[in-house]
Design brief:
The protein is an alpha/beta fold and about 300 residues long. Helix content is about 40%, strand content about 15%. It has two domains: about 5-85, no CATH class; about 120-285, Rossmann fold (3-Layer(aba) Sandwich). The longest helix is centred in the middle third of the chain and has 17 residues, at about 135-155. It starts with a helix and ends in a 9-residue tail after the last helix.
Length: about 300
């Protein structure tokens, strides 16, 4: 890990300490903006209070930045604890960080992705799958077919590991020889290593499940895929609806919904999603084109 990556973790990470107060996204954005304006780059390890004052930061803010950067022992302890659980960070300024997140989310891309498993999967083309926990049978079959086709067509499947659509598609993908990236909303460290699976968590490797974390990961699940498939959702509520509508508003990638003729799907189609039947899943590459003819 480079000094720059360590600096990023020190400034933006909780490092497993709920009482630690890292920089907020707006604060880090402001610091980055000001540092880019200076002619000579400032290295995190060589920063002095005068450097920060010279770029226009308030004295209190400058002292806080230097205090965060000084906590090297705390960072070293947290990284070692993560290594013992096979958990490793990818910061936003790491060369291995997925460029697709930079492109689609810009400064809203996660500052740190904690990973467990085969990070080479981040280099593969991927499709994303989201959906409800309680599936109707035809919707379950659609999620299963998306997972199967991802494996057969050479795509990594990205999903969220929740009961229902997520696990149905993940299992189908792995059973057909595919590969899966799982964005978890609970403790990354508790997931056992598996062949052909990469687990990812935002913020830390030992953070417990929360509804806020489950919603926050939606943008990562959607943005990592060249397409996002929606197996089933409920009109106006739930994480699947929230993520799909965010995607359509921000245009992260094409949204493809199983055409179950539900009110939710009809509304998503009005917003720009494309409805498909299970039989139209044989060519994911063609689905990335706006003029693809989605046959039933």
């Amino acid at each position: 890990m480079t000094a720059r990556e360590e600096g990023f973790l020190l400034l933006t990470g909780s490092l497993g300490n709920p009482d630690r107060k890292p920089l907020t996204v707006p604060q880090f954005r402001e610091l980055t903006r000001r540092m880019r304006q200076v002619e000579k780059p400032l290295n995190d390890g060589d920063l002095a209070e005068k450097d920060l004052l010279d770029i226009g930061l308030e004295p209190t803010f400058a002292k806080r930045i230097l205090q965060l950067l000084s906590q090297q022992d705390e960072l070293k302890w947290y990284l070692e604890k993560g290594r013992k659980q096979d958990c490793y960070p990818l910061t936003r300024n790491s060369s291995a960080y997925p460029t697709i997140l930079h492109k689609r989310l810009h400064m809203e891309a996660p500052g740190v992705l904690w990973t467990k498993g085969d990070r080479q999967l981040l280099k593969w083309p991927a499709v994303s799958l989201v959906g409800s926990r309680d599936l109707r049978e035809e919707n379950r079959e659609f999620a299963q077919e998306v997972g199967k086709q991802a494996a057969m067509q050479g795509y990594v499947l990205v999903s969220g590991n929740a009961r229902g659509a997520d696990k149905t598609a993940q299992d189908a993908c792995l059973e057909n020889g595919g590969k899966v990236i799982v964005i978890v909303a609970d403790e990354l460290e508790k997931h056992p290593l598996k062949n052909h699976v990469l687990y990812i968590s935002e913020g830390g490797f030992n953070l417990a499940f929360s509804a806020a974390r489950a919603l926050q990961r939606n943008r990562v699940i959607h943005s990592l895929g060249l397409l996002t498939f929606v197996a089933q959702c409920t009109l106006g509520k739930g994480g699947t609806w929230d993520g799909a509508t965010q995607n359509l508003r921000h245009n992260w990638n094409p949204v493809v919904c199983f055409d179950d003729e539900s009110p939710a799907v009809k509304e998503l189609v009005q917003m720009g999603a494309v409805p498909v039947k299970k039989g139209a899943l044989s060519d994911f590459q063609a689905m990335q084109s706006s003029n693809f003819n989605f046959l039933p």
